Amino acid sequence: MKNSLDLRKITVAGVLSAVAVVLGITPFGIIPWFSGASITIMHVPVIIAAILEGPIVGMIVGLIFGVSSLIKAAVQPLGILDPYFTNPLVSVLPRILIGLVTWAIYRGIKRWELPAVIIASVLGSLTNTILVVGSLGLFANINWEEMLGISYWPLFGTIFVANGVPEAIGAALITTAVVVAWKRLDRGKKSSNLADISDEETE
Question: What is the CATH number of domain 2-196?
Answer without folding.
Answer: 1.10.1760.20
